[in-house]
Amino acid sequence: MRITILGTAHPYRGGIAAFNERLAHQFQDEGHEVEIVTFTLQYPGFLFPGKTQYSSNAAPKDLNISRRVNSCNPFNWISVGRYVSKSQPDLLVIGFWLPFMAPCFGTIARIVKANSKTKVVAVLHNLIPHEARIGDKPFAKYFCGSVDGFVSLSKSVLNDIDVFDHKKPRAFSPHPIYDNFGNRVSNQEACEQLGLAPERSYLLFFGLIRDYKGLDWLLEAFAKSEAAAAKDVCLIIAGEFYGDGEKYHTLANTLGIDERIEWRTDYVPDSEVKYYFCAADLVVQPYKSATQSGVTQIAYHFEKPMLVTSVGGLSEIVPNGKVGYSVAPNVEAISSAIDDFCSHQHDFAEGIREEKKKYSWQVMSQTIIELCQK
Asked: 180, exposed or middle or buried, with CB in 10 Å at 0-12, 13-18, 19+?
């Protein structure tokens, strides 16, 4: 098949870009011809909360990435729609994560479908965002009306589709494992690379820091954990602040735990991701809301146990007691799980190796293609 992927990719950074590029590799491995059409302008600067939208990594040499889309220019959407329509792909895959992109993606999709050949499948990371904004639902409805079918990465997002559409085919396919961050290294090597003491135990909070991800809950839970304090366990916070970071530093100081925290609050380049996960004993995601998370799939790749809150689709991916902990979304439950892990150091390795088999990129690619054929 000829497949076009519409969405973020290099030179832009982040989990959605990594997803689109990894999916493109999977399609290519299966013999399909693939082009990724990405942005010349993704977000206006004043709407972007981080330091930079751009990756410091070299462009993938084996992917055809075309920068054409301006998310804010309706005349550009028409031009891009005509470009994709004229190339006549069998399948247009749109990686959708934010209603802000709905007018752009929805317009392009409508123009492409007019060629009477191309089927349009939306891969939904989110549909209704964690942090609501005016216009979210009308924008999402406009986008849903432009596609032929949906693949959702979590069951909670699959249910969200019903708010906007009841007829189009849809499928659930869980977020595949991120296996593009290199192979595992020893704990000793990882700690040396990060300048950490290898004799200590580490909890890891990883990824862009936004309010819904519950870092404040984790700080309070970490402070409450007597076992973590008794064993001098350290908390690594690795990721860039999207918003006010000072409030978290103030909270850590107030709780008296700042000396047991490693603050690594710059964006973590792909080349360093493996060191953070291989240094960690437990990956903690204390989210207040969620759909699914790429962080869990990185943890699976590096075979690290996880502690997640049972919100959105996280408990679907992290079965409690088998690969770690899935607990109620509150400080007490998170602290209790940290206590249990620090006290007993359960071995979840066998359960992780068994569970990770479910999350292959081949399952994702075949789900998309089968939906297209419907």
From this structure: middle
Choose among 151, 189, 188: nearest CA to 168.
Answer: 151
pTM recorded for the entire structure: 0.83
Q: What is the share, in percent, of the chain residues with pLDDT greater than 70?
A: 97
Which of 144, 157, 135, 139 is CA-nearest to residue 109?
144
Other CB atoms within a 10 A radius of the CB of residue 280 amount to 25
CB of 215 closer than 8 Å to CB of 331:
no
pLDDT band at residue 231 using 50, 70 and 90 as cut-offs: very high
pLDDT tens across 101-133, in order?
Answer: 999 999 999 999 999 999 999 999 999 876 677
Order of all β-strands in the sheet with 170-172? 65-70, 33-41, 2-6, 91-96, 119-124, 149-152, 170-172
pLDDT of residue 48: 60
Degrees, nearest 5: CA angle 321-322-326: 50
